[in-house]
Amino acid sequence: xxxxxxxLEWNAAYSRRLQGYINEIIEFGAVKCGEDLQVKSVFxxxxxxxxxxxxxxxIASLTSITDENLEEGLxxxxxxxxxxxxxxxxxxxxxxxxxILTLIENCRYFGRSERVPFLKQYLDLQRYSQVxxxxxxxxxxxxxxxxxxxxxxxxxxxHHRAQDDSLMTLEILKRVYDKEAVGAAVDVCDAEFYxxxxxxxxxxxxxxxxxxxxxxxxxxxxxxxxxSKRTTRWSLKNKSFRAEFACKTCGHPxxxxxxxxxxxxxxxxxxxxxxxxxIQEPRDAQPGPLGQMRLEMPGGVGVLRFxxxxxxxxxxxxxxxxxxxxxGEYAAMNxxxxxxxxxxxxxxxxxxxxxxxxxxxxxLVTGAQDHHVNIKRVGLEERGIGIWREKVxxxxxxxxxxxxxxxxxxxxxxxxxxxxxxxxxxxxxxAHAGWRGTAAGMAKVMVERMAxxxxxxxxxxxxxxxxxxxxxxxxxxxxxxxxxxxLPGAEKFVTLPTETDRKYHVDLWECNRQFLLEAGVxxxxxxxxxxxxxxxxxxxxxxxxxxxxxxxxxxxxxxx
Length: 560
Known about the structure:
Blueprint: E1 2-15, E2 20-33, E3 39-46, H1 57-63, H2 67-71, H3 76-87, E4 90-94, H4 98-111, E5 121-124, H5 125-132, H6 143-149, H7 162-176, H8 179-185, E6 187-188, H9 191-198, E7 202-203, E8 228-230, E9 235-237, E10 240-247, E11 253-263, E12 266-274, E13 288-290, E14 293-296, E15 303-305, E16 314-319, H10 343-357, E17 364-365, E18 375-377, E19 398-401, E20 407-412, E21 416-422, E22 427-433, H11 435-439, H12 442-454, E23 462-465, E24 475-476, H13 478-485, E25 494-495, E26 504-506, H14 508-518, E27 526-528, H15 543-546, E28 553-559
Parallel strand pairs: 1-4, 4-5, 17-20, 18-19, 23-27
Antiparallel strand pairs: 1-2, 2-3, 5-6, 7-11, 8-10, 9-10, 10-11, 11-12, 13-14, 14-15, 15-16, 16-28, 19-22, 20-28, 21-22, 21-23, 24-26, 25-26
Protein backbone atom coordinates (compact mmCIF):
# COMPACT_ATOMS: atom_id res chain seq x y z
CA UNK A 1 0.00 0.00 0.00
CA UNK A 2 1.25 3.49 -0.82
CA UNK A 3 1.92 6.02 1.92
CA UNK A 4 0.61 9.57 1.47
CA UNK A 5 1.86 12.30 3.79
CA UNK A 6 -0.64 15.14 3.81
CA UNK A 7 -0.29 18.70 5.06
CA LEU A 8 -2.90 21.46 4.99
CA GLU A 9 -2.93 25.21 5.42
CA TRP A 10 -6.07 26.95 6.60
CA ASN A 11 -7.50 30.32 7.50
CA ALA A 12 -9.79 31.09 10.44
CA ALA A 13 -12.96 32.42 8.78
CA TYR A 14 -16.14 33.71 10.41
CA SER A 15 -19.24 31.86 9.19
CA ARG A 16 -22.60 33.57 9.47
CA ARG A 17 -24.26 30.17 9.06
CA LEU A 18 -22.42 28.80 12.12
CA GLN A 19 -22.35 32.13 13.96
CA GLY A 20 -18.76 31.23 14.71
CA TYR A 21 -15.38 30.47 13.19
CA ILE A 22 -14.33 27.64 10.90
CA ASN A 23 -10.77 26.72 9.91
CA GLU A 24 -11.26 26.99 6.16
CA ILE A 25 -8.69 24.95 4.23
CA ILE A 26 -6.81 27.03 1.63
CA GLU A 27 -4.09 24.61 0.46
CA PHE A 28 -3.50 20.88 0.05
CA GLY A 29 0.06 19.58 -0.13
CA ALA A 30 1.10 15.93 -0.15
CA VAL A 31 3.77 13.46 -1.15
CA LYS A 32 3.16 9.82 -2.16
CA CYS A 33 5.73 7.09 -1.67
CA GLY A 34 5.94 3.32 -1.52
CA GLU A 35 6.95 1.23 1.47
CA ASP A 36 10.57 1.93 0.48
CA LEU A 37 9.80 5.64 1.18
CA GLN A 38 10.93 6.68 -2.30
CA VAL A 39 8.87 9.54 -3.72
CA LYS A 40 6.43 8.53 -6.45
CA SER A 41 4.63 11.84 -6.94
CA VAL A 42 3.60 15.04 -5.21
CA PHE A 43 0.30 16.90 -4.98
CA UNK A 44 -0.33 20.61 -4.53
CA UNK A 45 -3.62 22.47 -4.82
CA UNK A 46 -4.94 25.83 -3.68
CA UNK A 47 -8.49 25.92 -2.35
CA UNK A 48 -10.64 28.93 -3.19
CA UNK A 49 -12.22 30.37 -0.01
CA UNK A 50 -16.01 30.16 0.14
CA UNK A 51 -16.57 31.48 3.67
CA UNK A 52 -14.13 34.36 4.03
CA UNK A 53 -13.44 36.95 1.33
CA UNK A 54 -9.81 37.34 2.36
CA UNK A 55 -7.19 35.41 4.26
CA UNK A 56 -5.88 37.18 7.32
CA UNK A 57 -2.59 39.02 7.07
CA UNK A 58 -1.22 36.81 9.86
CA ILE A 59 -1.82 33.68 7.76
CA ALA A 60 -0.58 35.45 4.62
CA SER A 61 2.61 36.44 6.43
CA LEU A 62 3.07 32.97 7.90
CA THR A 63 2.46 31.05 4.68
CA SER A 64 3.22 33.65 1.94
CA ILE A 65 -0.14 32.66 0.37
CA THR A 66 -2.05 35.62 -1.08
CA ASP A 67 -5.67 36.22 -2.07
CA GLU A 68 -4.50 36.25 -5.69
CA ASN A 69 -3.06 32.73 -5.30
CA LEU A 70 -6.43 31.47 -4.13
CA GLU A 71 -8.51 33.05 -6.91
CA GLU A 72 -7.62 30.18 -9.24
CA GLY A 73 -8.10 27.53 -6.54
CA LEU A 74 -10.79 24.86 -6.53
CA UNK A 75 -13.80 24.81 -4.18
CA UNK A 76 -13.09 22.53 -1.24
CA UNK A 77 -15.17 19.53 -2.34
CA UNK A 78 -13.60 19.58 -5.83
CA UNK A 79 -10.13 19.83 -4.32
CA UNK A 80 -10.91 16.89 -2.02
CA UNK A 81 -12.17 14.83 -4.99
CA UNK A 82 -9.04 15.60 -7.01
CA UNK A 83 -6.87 14.61 -4.03
CA UNK A 84 -8.82 11.36 -3.63
CA UNK A 85 -8.19 10.42 -7.28
CA UNK A 86 -4.50 11.21 -6.92
CA UNK A 87 -4.01 9.44 -3.58
CA UNK A 88 -5.82 6.22 -4.47
CA UNK A 89 -5.89 3.37 -1.95
CA UNK A 90 -3.31 4.53 0.56
CA UNK A 91 -2.27 5.03 4.17
CA UNK A 92 -2.66 8.71 5.08
CA UNK A 93 -0.18 10.25 7.51
CA UNK A 94 -0.19 13.74 9.02
CA UNK A 95 1.98 15.48 11.59
CA UNK A 96 -0.52 15.61 14.45
CA UNK A 97 -4.27 15.25 14.25
CA UNK A 98 -5.13 18.92 13.66
CA UNK A 99 -5.12 18.42 9.86
CA ILE A 100 -7.57 15.52 10.18
CA LEU A 101 -9.84 17.47 12.51
CA THR A 102 -9.80 20.38 10.05
CA LEU A 103 -10.63 18.00 7.20
CA ILE A 104 -13.58 16.64 9.16
CA GLU A 105 -14.70 20.21 9.93
CA ASN A 106 -14.55 21.20 6.25
CA CYS A 107 -16.27 18.03 5.04
CA ARG A 108 -19.05 18.62 7.56
CA TYR A 109 -19.43 22.25 6.50
CA PHE A 110 -19.19 21.91 2.71
CA GLY A 111 -20.23 18.29 2.17
CA ARG A 112 -22.68 17.86 5.08
CA SER A 113 -20.79 14.75 6.20
CA GLU A 114 -17.97 14.45 8.69
CA ARG A 115 -16.58 11.42 6.84
CA VAL A 116 -13.45 12.27 4.83
CA PRO A 117 -13.90 10.52 1.44
CA PHE A 118 -10.26 9.50 0.99
CA LEU A 119 -9.50 8.51 4.60
CA LYS A 120 -9.45 4.73 5.01
CA GLN A 121 -6.32 4.11 7.08
CA TYR A 122 -4.50 6.75 9.12
CA LEU A 123 -1.35 7.27 11.18
CA ASP A 124 -0.61 10.22 13.46
CA LEU A 125 3.07 10.52 12.57
CA GLN A 126 3.72 13.08 15.27
CA ARG A 127 2.68 10.74 18.06
CA TYR A 128 4.38 7.76 16.39
CA SER A 129 7.66 9.70 16.08
CA GLN A 130 7.56 10.95 19.66
CA VAL A 131 7.11 7.40 20.93
CA UNK A 132 9.81 6.00 18.63
CA UNK A 133 12.33 8.67 19.59
CA UNK A 134 11.55 8.54 23.31
CA UNK A 135 10.44 12.17 23.39
CA UNK A 136 7.30 11.34 25.36
CA UNK A 137 3.74 12.34 24.52
CA UNK A 138 3.04 14.79 27.34
CA UNK A 139 3.56 17.76 25.02
CA UNK A 140 3.35 17.91 21.24
CA UNK A 141 6.61 18.35 19.35
CA UNK A 142 6.22 20.71 16.40
CA UNK A 143 7.30 19.74 12.91
CA UNK A 144 10.21 22.18 12.75
CA UNK A 145 11.33 21.21 16.26
CA UNK A 146 11.31 17.50 15.34
CA UNK A 147 13.40 18.21 12.25
CA UNK A 148 15.85 20.15 14.39
CA UNK A 149 16.04 17.38 17.01
CA UNK A 150 16.78 14.87 14.24
CA UNK A 151 19.38 17.26 12.77
CA UNK A 152 17.73 17.28 9.36
CA UNK A 153 18.78 19.77 6.71
CA UNK A 154 15.52 21.49 5.73
CA UNK A 155 17.08 24.79 4.67
CA UNK A 156 15.61 24.57 1.19
CA UNK A 157 12.07 23.96 2.41
CA UNK A 158 9.47 26.64 3.09
CA HIS A 159 7.95 25.90 6.51
CA HIS A 160 4.20 26.60 6.70
CA ARG A 161 3.63 25.74 3.05
CA ALA A 162 1.71 22.51 2.59
CA GLN A 163 3.86 20.70 0.02
CA ASP A 164 7.20 21.56 1.63
CA ASP A 165 5.86 20.59 5.06
CA SER A 166 4.76 17.23 3.67
CA LEU A 167 8.25 16.67 2.23
CA MET A 168 9.80 17.69 5.55
CA THR A 169 7.53 15.20 7.28
CA LEU A 170 8.69 12.48 4.89
CA GLU A 171 12.30 13.15 5.88
CA ILE A 172 11.32 12.67 9.52
CA LEU A 173 9.49 9.44 8.63
CA LYS A 174 12.66 8.10 7.02
CA ARG A 175 14.49 8.53 10.34
CA VAL A 176 11.85 6.81 12.48
CA TYR A 177 10.38 4.27 10.05
CA ASP A 178 9.89 0.67 11.08
CA LYS A 179 7.41 -1.29 8.98
CA GLU A 180 6.10 -3.44 11.83
CA ALA A 181 5.88 -0.53 14.31
CA VAL A 182 4.04 1.59 11.73
CA GLY A 183 1.60 -1.24 11.04
CA ALA A 184 0.81 -1.57 14.73
CA ALA A 185 0.12 2.18 15.02
CA VAL A 186 -2.24 2.48 12.04
CA ASP A 187 -5.89 3.34 12.71
CA VAL A 188 -8.70 1.96 10.57
CA CYS A 189 -10.98 4.92 9.90
CA ASP A 190 -14.25 3.36 11.00
CA ALA A 191 -17.10 4.85 13.05
CA GLU A 192 -15.16 4.39 16.30
CA PHE A 193 -12.21 6.31 14.81
CA TYR A 194 -14.44 9.28 14.01
CA UNK A 195 -16.04 9.19 17.45
CA UNK A 196 -12.61 9.24 19.05
CA UNK A 197 -11.28 11.96 16.76
CA UNK A 198 -14.24 14.29 17.26
CA UNK A 199 -14.72 13.62 20.96
CA UNK A 200 -14.28 16.90 22.82
CA UNK A 201 -12.40 16.54 26.06
CA UNK A 202 -14.18 18.46 28.80
CA UNK A 203 -13.56 19.32 32.41
CA UNK A 204 -15.56 17.97 35.34
CA UNK A 205 -16.64 21.09 37.24
CA UNK A 206 -19.01 19.52 39.77
CA UNK A 207 -17.62 17.43 42.62
CA UNK A 208 -21.00 15.77 43.06
CA UNK A 209 -20.59 14.13 39.65
CA UNK A 210 -20.80 10.32 39.88
CA UNK A 211 -17.50 10.21 38.00
CA UNK A 212 -15.66 11.78 40.94
CA UNK A 213 -14.31 9.26 43.44
CA UNK A 214 -13.28 9.83 47.06
CA UNK A 215 -9.68 8.97 46.21
CA UNK A 216 -9.56 11.87 43.78
CA UNK A 217 -10.10 14.29 46.67
CA UNK A 218 -7.31 12.98 48.92
CA UNK A 219 -3.86 14.58 48.92
CA UNK A 220 -0.67 13.27 50.48
CA UNK A 221 1.58 15.65 52.39
CA UNK A 222 4.34 16.91 50.04
CA UNK A 223 6.74 17.11 53.00
CA UNK A 224 6.44 13.71 54.69
CA UNK A 225 4.01 11.80 52.46
CA UNK A 226 1.52 11.39 55.29
CA UNK A 227 -2.26 11.59 55.15
CA SER A 228 -3.71 15.09 55.18
CA LYS A 229 -7.01 16.69 56.06
CA ARG A 230 -8.74 19.44 54.14
CA THR A 231 -8.99 22.70 56.11
CA THR A 232 -11.01 24.83 53.68
CA ARG A 233 -13.91 24.36 51.32
CA TRP A 234 -13.27 23.39 47.73
CA SER A 235 -13.38 26.33 45.32
CA LEU A 236 -13.62 26.13 41.54
CA LYS A 237 -11.30 28.44 39.63
CA ASN A 238 -10.48 28.17 35.94
CA LYS A 239 -11.88 24.61 35.76
CA SER A 240 -9.72 23.42 38.64
CA PHE A 241 -10.73 22.63 42.21
CA ARG A 242 -8.60 24.12 44.97
CA ALA A 243 -8.44 23.76 48.73
CA GLU A 244 -6.02 24.03 51.61
CA PHE A 245 -4.78 21.03 53.58
CA ALA A 246 -2.79 20.20 56.70
CA CYS A 247 -0.79 17.01 57.27
CA LYS A 248 -2.18 14.83 60.06
CA THR A 249 1.34 13.64 60.87
CA CYS A 250 3.67 16.65 60.69
CA GLY A 251 1.12 19.46 60.53
CA HIS A 252 2.58 20.90 57.31
CA PRO A 253 0.08 23.26 55.62
CA UNK A 254 -0.19 23.31 51.84
CA UNK A 255 -2.56 23.98 48.96
CA UNK A 256 -3.91 21.34 46.60
CA UNK A 257 -5.20 21.69 43.05
CA UNK A 258 -7.36 19.06 41.37
CA UNK A 259 -8.18 18.95 37.64
CA UNK A 260 -10.46 16.22 36.30
CA UNK A 261 -10.86 15.82 32.53
CA UNK A 262 -13.31 13.53 30.79
CA UNK A 263 -11.34 12.19 27.84
CA UNK A 264 -12.37 9.63 25.25
CA UNK A 265 -10.23 7.01 26.99
CA UNK A 266 -11.70 7.85 30.41
CA UNK A 267 -11.00 10.23 33.28
CA UNK A 268 -7.65 12.01 33.54
CA UNK A 269 -7.05 13.15 37.13
CA UNK A 270 -4.28 15.64 37.79
CA UNK A 271 -3.33 16.58 41.35
CA UNK A 272 -0.67 19.06 42.40
CA UNK A 273 0.39 20.54 45.72
CA UNK A 274 1.73 24.05 46.23
CA UNK A 275 3.01 26.19 49.10
CA UNK A 276 0.26 28.36 50.50
CA UNK A 277 0.25 31.71 48.71
CA UNK A 278 1.31 34.90 50.38
CA ILE A 279 -1.62 37.28 49.99
CA GLN A 280 -0.70 40.95 50.24
CA GLU A 281 -3.03 43.56 51.63
CA PRO A 282 -3.93 46.31 49.15
CA ARG A 283 -1.55 49.22 49.64
CA ASP A 284 -2.41 52.69 50.81
CA ALA A 285 -1.89 54.39 47.47
CA GLN A 286 -1.73 58.04 46.54
CA PRO A 287 -2.79 59.49 43.17
CA GLY A 288 -0.03 60.27 40.73
CA PRO A 289 1.98 58.91 37.78
CA LEU A 290 2.74 55.18 37.52
CA GLY A 291 4.82 54.13 34.54
CA GLN A 292 3.20 55.79 31.52
CA MET A 293 -0.17 55.76 33.28
CA ARG A 294 -1.88 57.90 35.89
CA LEU A 295 -3.39 56.59 39.14
CA GLU A 296 -6.54 58.44 40.15
CA MET A 297 -8.38 57.91 43.45
CA PRO A 298 -11.95 59.23 43.04
CA GLY A 299 -13.82 58.41 46.28
CA GLY A 300 -11.00 56.10 47.36
CA VAL A 301 -11.37 53.88 44.26
CA GLY A 302 -8.12 53.23 42.39
CA VAL A 303 -8.40 53.95 38.63
CA LEU A 304 -5.50 53.75 36.18
CA ARG A 305 -5.65 55.74 32.95
CA PHE A 306 -3.40 56.67 30.01
CA UNK A 307 -2.64 60.40 29.77
CA UNK A 308 -2.11 59.76 26.04
CA UNK A 309 -5.85 59.05 25.74
CA UNK A 310 -6.90 62.43 27.18
CA UNK A 311 -9.02 64.32 24.67
CA UNK A 312 -9.69 61.33 22.38
CA UNK A 313 -13.43 61.26 22.98
CA UNK A 314 -13.36 58.04 24.97
CA UNK A 315 -13.69 56.99 28.59
CA UNK A 316 -11.15 54.37 29.51
CA UNK A 317 -9.80 52.79 32.68
CA UNK A 318 -7.99 49.86 34.25
CA UNK A 319 -9.16 48.72 37.67
CA UNK A 320 -6.98 48.28 40.76
CA UNK A 321 -7.48 46.41 44.04
CA UNK A 322 -8.47 49.64 45.81
CA UNK A 323 -11.96 50.71 46.86
CA UNK A 324 -14.13 47.57 46.64
CA UNK A 325 -16.05 45.48 49.14
CA UNK A 326 -14.38 42.07 48.69
CA UNK A 327 -12.19 40.54 51.39
CA GLY A 328 -9.21 38.22 51.83
CA GLU A 329 -7.48 37.20 48.62
CA TYR A 330 -10.15 39.10 46.67
CA ALA A 331 -9.55 42.37 48.52
CA ALA A 332 -10.95 44.65 47.63
CA MET A 333 -12.00 45.54 44.09
CA ASN A 334 -12.48 42.08 42.61
CA UNK A 335 -14.35 42.26 39.29
CA UNK A 336 -14.19 38.55 38.47
CA UNK A 337 -17.19 36.25 38.81
CA UNK A 338 -16.70 32.51 39.39
CA UNK A 339 -13.50 32.92 41.37
CA UNK A 340 -15.00 32.08 44.75
CA UNK A 341 -15.94 35.61 45.77
CA UNK A 342 -19.70 35.98 46.40
CA UNK A 343 -21.44 37.26 43.26
CA UNK A 344 -23.10 40.06 45.22
CA UNK A 345 -19.65 41.41 46.12
CA UNK A 346 -18.54 41.38 42.49
CA UNK A 347 -21.75 43.09 41.36
CA UNK A 348 -21.33 45.77 44.03
CA UNK A 349 -17.70 46.28 43.00
CA UNK A 350 -18.74 46.83 39.37
CA UNK A 351 -21.22 49.49 40.42
CA UNK A 352 -18.65 51.22 42.66
CA UNK A 353 -15.94 51.17 40.02
CA UNK A 354 -18.20 52.34 37.20
CA UNK A 355 -19.42 55.28 39.22
CA UNK A 356 -15.87 56.27 40.16
CA UNK A 357 -14.41 55.78 36.67
CA UNK A 358 -17.25 57.38 34.73
CA UNK A 359 -18.98 54.40 33.09
CA UNK A 360 -22.66 53.48 32.97
CA UNK A 361 -22.81 50.14 34.80
CA UNK A 362 -25.64 48.82 32.62
CA UNK A 363 -23.58 49.40 29.47
CA LEU A 364 -20.87 46.82 30.23
CA VAL A 365 -20.34 43.87 27.88
CA THR A 366 -17.71 41.12 27.91
CA GLY A 367 -17.00 37.77 26.26
CA ALA A 368 -15.83 34.32 27.32
CA GLN A 369 -12.04 34.65 27.09
CA ASP A 370 -10.04 31.51 26.28
CA HIS A 371 -6.73 32.77 24.84
CA HIS A 372 -7.68 32.86 21.16
CA VAL A 373 -7.87 35.79 18.73
CA ASN A 374 -11.60 35.80 18.02
CA ILE A 375 -13.22 39.25 18.02
CA LYS A 376 -16.88 40.19 18.36
CA ARG A 377 -18.48 43.43 17.18
CA VAL A 378 -21.09 44.54 19.70
CA GLY A 379 -23.86 47.14 19.91
CA LEU A 380 -26.64 48.32 22.19
CA GLU A 381 -28.43 44.96 22.09
CA GLU A 382 -25.38 43.30 23.73
CA ARG A 383 -25.26 45.62 26.75
CA GLY A 384 -24.98 43.66 29.98
CA ILE A 385 -23.81 40.37 28.44
CA GLY A 386 -21.23 38.65 30.60
CA ILE A 387 -21.74 41.03 33.54
CA TRP A 388 -25.46 41.36 34.27
CA ARG A 389 -26.62 38.83 31.67
CA GLU A 390 -25.37 35.33 30.88
CA LYS A 391 -22.33 34.99 28.61
CA VAL A 392 -23.64 33.89 25.22
CA UNK A 393 -20.41 33.63 23.18
CA UNK A 394 -17.62 31.14 23.45
CA UNK A 395 -14.00 32.00 22.65
CA UNK A 396 -14.23 35.80 22.41
CA UNK A 397 -11.07 37.59 23.51
CA UNK A 398 -11.66 40.86 21.70
CA UNK A 399 -14.53 43.33 21.36
CA UNK A 400 -15.09 46.31 19.09
CA UNK A 401 -17.88 48.82 18.53
CA UNK A 402 -18.72 52.20 17.01
CA UNK A 403 -21.81 52.64 19.17
CA UNK A 404 -22.03 55.07 22.06
CA UNK A 405 -23.56 53.71 25.25
CA UNK A 406 -21.59 50.45 25.08
CA UNK A 407 -18.64 49.79 27.41
CA UNK A 408 -16.19 47.10 26.33
CA UNK A 409 -14.76 45.01 29.18
CA UNK A 410 -12.00 42.42 29.34
CA UNK A 411 -10.53 40.57 32.34
CA UNK A 412 -6.83 40.25 33.13
CA UNK A 413 -4.54 39.26 36.00
CA UNK A 414 -1.12 39.24 34.27
CA UNK A 415 -2.31 38.94 30.64
CA UNK A 416 -2.09 41.98 28.38
CA UNK A 417 -5.04 44.36 27.81
CA UNK A 418 -4.86 46.16 24.46
CA UNK A 419 -6.76 49.42 23.84
CA UNK A 420 -7.61 50.74 20.34
CA UNK A 421 -9.18 54.13 19.50
CA UNK A 422 -10.15 55.26 15.99
CA UNK A 423 -11.09 58.94 16.29
CA UNK A 424 -11.83 59.30 12.58
CA UNK A 425 -14.59 56.68 12.55
CA UNK A 426 -15.58 56.95 16.22
CA UNK A 427 -14.76 53.30 16.81
CA UNK A 428 -12.96 51.45 19.59
CA UNK A 429 -11.56 48.01 20.30
CA UNK A 430 -10.40 46.21 23.44
CA ALA A 431 -8.54 42.91 23.45
CA HIS A 432 -7.24 40.31 25.90
CA ALA A 433 -3.82 38.95 24.92
CA GLY A 434 -2.35 36.25 27.13
CA TRP A 435 0.90 34.72 25.94
CA ARG A 436 -1.00 32.55 23.44
CA GLY A 437 -3.01 35.47 22.11
CA THR A 438 0.08 37.66 21.97
CA ALA A 439 2.05 35.05 20.01
CA ALA A 440 -0.93 34.55 17.68
CA GLY A 441 -0.96 38.26 16.84
CA MET A 442 -4.10 39.49 18.63
CA ALA A 443 -2.83 43.09 18.34
CA LYS A 444 -2.59 42.82 14.56
CA VAL A 445 -5.84 40.87 14.25
CA MET A 446 -7.75 43.67 16.04
CA VAL A 447 -6.28 46.33 13.73
CA GLU A 448 -7.35 44.30 10.70
CA ARG A 449 -10.81 43.64 12.13
CA MET A 450 -11.40 47.34 12.82
CA ALA A 451 -10.28 48.13 9.27
CA UNK A 452 -12.83 45.60 7.95
CA UNK A 453 -15.67 46.70 10.24
CA UNK A 454 -15.23 50.49 10.35
CA UNK A 455 -12.74 51.41 7.62
CA UNK A 456 -10.09 52.19 10.24
CA UNK A 457 -6.80 53.52 8.90
CA UNK A 458 -4.07 51.82 10.99
CA UNK A 459 -1.86 54.91 10.65
CA UNK A 460 -4.48 56.97 12.48
CA UNK A 461 -5.26 54.40 15.17
CA UNK A 462 -4.25 55.29 18.74
CA UNK A 463 -3.34 52.25 20.86
CA UNK A 464 -2.10 51.34 24.31
CA UNK A 465 -0.74 48.30 26.12
CA UNK A 466 -2.18 48.12 29.62
CA UNK A 467 -0.99 46.75 32.98
CA UNK A 468 0.30 43.18 32.69
CA UNK A 469 3.32 41.07 33.57
CA UNK A 470 6.70 42.54 32.60
CA UNK A 471 9.60 40.76 30.90
CA UNK A 472 11.63 40.40 34.09
CA UNK A 473 8.73 38.61 35.81
CA UNK A 474 7.53 36.57 32.83
CA UNK A 475 9.93 33.64 32.86
CA UNK A 476 8.94 30.66 30.72
CA UNK A 477 10.16 27.19 29.80
CA UNK A 478 11.34 26.20 26.34
CA UNK A 479 7.98 25.05 24.84
CA UNK A 480 6.46 28.51 25.44
CA UNK A 481 9.64 30.29 24.40
CA UNK A 482 9.64 28.39 21.09
CA UNK A 483 6.25 29.87 20.20
CA UNK A 484 7.82 33.33 20.38
CA UNK A 485 11.20 32.40 18.91
CA UNK A 486 9.34 31.32 15.76
CA LEU A 487 8.08 34.89 15.27
CA PRO A 488 9.94 37.47 13.14
CA GLY A 489 12.20 39.73 15.21
CA ALA A 490 12.09 37.42 18.24
CA GLU A 491 15.39 38.83 19.48
CA LYS A 492 13.52 42.04 20.34
CA PHE A 493 11.26 40.36 22.90
CA VAL A 494 12.83 37.03 23.93
CA THR A 495 15.77 36.80 26.34
CA LEU A 496 17.63 33.49 26.25
CA PRO A 497 18.70 31.55 29.36
CA THR A 498 22.04 32.36 30.99
CA GLU A 499 24.27 30.61 33.51
CA THR A 500 22.64 32.57 36.33
CA ASP A 501 19.07 32.45 34.99
CA ARG A 502 18.10 29.17 33.32
CA LYS A 503 14.70 30.46 32.15
CA TYR A 504 13.67 32.25 28.99
CA HIS A 505 12.06 35.65 29.49
CA VAL A 506 9.45 37.08 27.11
CA ASP A 507 8.53 40.76 26.79
CA LEU A 508 4.82 40.61 25.98
CA TRP A 509 4.64 44.40 25.79
CA GLU A 510 7.29 44.60 23.05
CA CYS A 511 5.89 41.60 21.17
CA ASN A 512 2.47 43.29 20.99
CA ARG A 513 4.13 46.55 19.97
CA GLN A 514 5.89 44.80 17.09
CA PHE A 515 2.59 43.33 15.89
CA LEU A 516 1.00 46.81 16.05
CA LEU A 517 3.84 48.27 14.01
CA GLU A 518 3.54 45.43 11.50
CA ALA A 519 -0.18 46.18 11.20
CA GLY A 520 0.59 49.79 10.24
CA VAL A 521 0.10 51.58 13.56
CA UNK A 522 2.51 54.49 13.91
CA UNK A 523 5.14 54.23 16.62
CA UNK A 524 4.08 57.55 18.15
CA UNK A 525 0.51 56.20 18.47
CA UNK A 526 1.52 53.27 20.69
CA UNK A 527 1.71 53.75 24.45
CA UNK A 528 3.26 51.05 26.63
CA UNK A 529 1.74 51.53 30.08
CA UNK A 530 4.83 50.12 31.79
CA UNK A 531 2.89 48.87 34.83
CA UNK A 532 3.65 45.29 35.89
CA UNK A 533 0.88 43.40 37.66
CA UNK A 534 3.37 41.13 39.42
CA UNK A 535 5.68 43.94 40.59
CA UNK A 536 2.65 45.94 41.73
CA UNK A 537 0.72 43.01 43.24
CA UNK A 538 -0.39 45.05 46.25
CA UNK A 539 -2.12 47.39 43.79
CA UNK A 540 -3.20 44.96 41.06
CA UNK A 541 -4.21 41.29 40.99
CA UNK A 542 -1.43 39.00 39.75
CA UNK A 543 -2.11 35.34 38.97
CA UNK A 544 1.55 34.34 39.18
CA UNK A 545 2.31 36.18 42.39
CA UNK A 546 -0.58 34.59 44.27
CA UNK A 547 -0.56 31.18 42.51
CA UNK A 548 -4.10 31.79 41.35
CA UNK A 549 -5.49 32.95 44.71
CA UNK A 550 -6.75 36.31 43.54
CA UNK A 551 -9.52 38.39 42.07
CA UNK A 552 -9.62 39.88 38.58
CA UNK A 553 -8.69 43.25 37.13
CA UNK A 554 -10.74 44.76 34.33
CA UNK A 555 -9.93 46.99 31.39
CA UNK A 556 -12.81 49.17 30.19
CA UNK A 557 -13.27 51.37 27.13
CA UNK A 558 -16.28 53.34 25.86
CA UNK A 559 -17.05 56.16 23.44
CA UNK A 560 -18.10 59.35 25.21
